[in-house]
Each structure stands twice: as structure tokens, then as C-alpha cells.
Amino acid sequence: MAAGHTAIVTGANHGIGAATAQALAGRGCAVLCTFLRVDDPDDPGTPQLVRDHRARDATPVVARIRDSGGRAAAVEADLSDPATPAMLFDTAEEQFGPVDILINNATGSLADTFADAATDRLGRSLQPVTAETWTRQFTVDAMGAALMISEFARRHIARQATWGRIIGLTSGGDIGFPEEVSYGAAKAAQENYTMSAASELASFGITANMVHPPVTDTGWVTDAVREHVAASPGLIHIATPDQVAEVIAYLASDAAALITANVIILR
Asked: Which end of the chain, N or C, is less surrounded by CB atoms within 10 Å?
């Protein structure tokens, strides 16, 4: 990847988002790291480390990038607010220049279900599907991602740019996502938006893809999760955030110019 690109990475205070911000910065990109601190309730099935990660800001990520000679800044922003995309692009342009890489990584992640169950197969708390769970999930993973793509496209076309990358993160699949049903549905919507962007924006030099990581240890992988992965014929690896970030960084490179309109499943 040539230096001089500017990226926005959403959900960049921990996990795959933080690793992606660092991977892009290491390849010469300036990176705006967006995040939203979340104060999750205690949950006996969820490690405290996960709650700690979700409650912190992106200051350590930006510090690591700058200590390595890179350029980065952090902004706390709520993607469920329709005004957020314009603010984020304005901020990135003011600090680094026009944005040509968009990583839609942030999620309103929660576990909801249609079944009469209080916990999932791993002991994590479940709640029923309600208007509240739908709204939390869809306003970030579907609407937020779509509005970020729209803002990216509008500015890219207006300045007559010829190179751009849009990459989203997904999970679940076509047959649904039991025990995280709103999450899976919102990610499916984001996939559809991204595939539409790949077709509609190709003539402007933009590629658009989704990455479907394997189980990734962002702090939530317990012994029960490892046992579940080992027993599942469809799950092969437990990845690190850095491993997933390397794939995302490749998709954002010149070498991936012919890769677009794909959901890339990592196993």
C-alpha cells in the first residue's frame, strides 16, 4: 500500500478495529479511530475483560500508532446519530485530508432471541427481541454503516477521486444467527448495502467487500468457547485480531484492486 491514504476505522478502541487501525497506519495510512464507550452490565457468561475493552476510549491505540511514527487521531462518536458520518469525515479531512478507505467495523452488539431462554449455549445472558434490541443493532450495524458509505461515496465523487476502498465486518450467515438474531440480521443488511456499493461505485475506482472473521479472541473467548470451536465441524481457527486485520489491510491495498463485491469468509 502506498503512503498517503486516509482511513476511517469505526469501533477502533479495541479488538479487530484497533488492530486494523494499527495495521493500516503501519502501511502509511493516516487513521481516524472512532469509538463509543459502552458500559455493559455484569454478565456471568461474559469475561470482565470484554466489558473493560468496550468501556475504554481509543487513546492507547492512537498512542501506539504515533509511537511507531504513524498518524492517527481518535473521536468518540455514536453511529446511531445520522449526523455522525458528516462529522467524522469533516474531522478526518481537517486533520489528514480526503478519506479514501472506510472500515465499517463498529457494532451495537447484543444477544437477543426469539426463544424462551435466559442464557445462550455459552452461558451468556440473552434477552427477547424487542424494538429496543432491534433499534440498538440496526441503527449502528445497518443504518450507521449505510450512511458512512453514502458520505464516503458523495465526497469521493464530488472531488472526482479514482481510488477508494470500503470494507465491512460481518458475522452470521444466510440461514440466520441463532441467539444473536438482531445482530445477524443487521449484518446481513450491511452486507447488502456493501454489495450494492461495489456495483454502483465500481466506475469511480471504489472496491467494496465484507470480511467474515472466524471466532476471534477479542477478550471473550473462554474455555467453553474453545470447546465449542473444537467440537464444531464448521469452525476451524480461533483467530487473533491482528490476523483478521492483515486480511483487511490487504483488501485496502493496491494489490486487491480486482477484489470487490465479495463476502470473504475466514476460517
From this structure: C
Q: Strand ranges (DSSP E) for 20-143?
A: 30-35, 71-76, 101-104, 112-113, 127-128
Q: How far apart are CA 174 and CA 34, in angstroms?
A: 29
Among 87, 129, 80, CA closest to 106? 80
DSSP 124-147: -B-EE--HHHHHHHHIIIIIIHHH
3-class SS of residue 171: coil
Q: Which triple of cell numbers denotes residue 75?
A: 473521536
CB 133 within 8 A of CB 110: yes
pLDDT digits (tens, 9 = 90+) for 133-156: 999 999 999 999 999 999 999 999
Which sequence positions are flagged as catalytic?
Answer: 183
Beta bridge partners of 10: none
pTM of the predicted protein model: 0.95
